[in-house]
Amino acid sequence: MADDVHVCERCSDNFIVNSKLVCCKKCKKSYHSQCVSVKDDALKILSKSNNFAWICDMCKNAEDGACVDDNGGQAEKNKLKSECLKQKEIECLQREKCILEKLVTELENASQLQKFKIDVYEKELNATKTSSSNSGMLQKTYKAIVYQQ
Predict the structure, then answer these.
(1) CA distance 87 to 33
(2) Confidence (pTM)
């Protein structure tokens, strides 16, 4: 194999152009993020921050695939966990917002339909009243004509 071809240390597959990969801070070996169960939100944080580094299973002692700072500080691990939780909360709230927007739209449509039905019923009622009123006038006219003759 050529020296310039990089492969995942876990699955031995080549990295394609758009592969998501993570490199161990200590041994510098590369892995597909999905091969080592590094989620996209953690990858974003790793790529944007110089304060965090990922350590592979072979290099870490008691860590469980967590992101740690260069000194292995617990505060930094907690900060990363907090960021991940915030991101998940944001995603959850966005899904809830989408659902609520759909419900509001459905309620607005139902309200418009009810208003339309009310308008139709009012027109029918007015037509019935007008018809009844005309019928009453016809009866009066009929009686007036019949009894005058």
Answers:
(1) 18
(2) 0.38
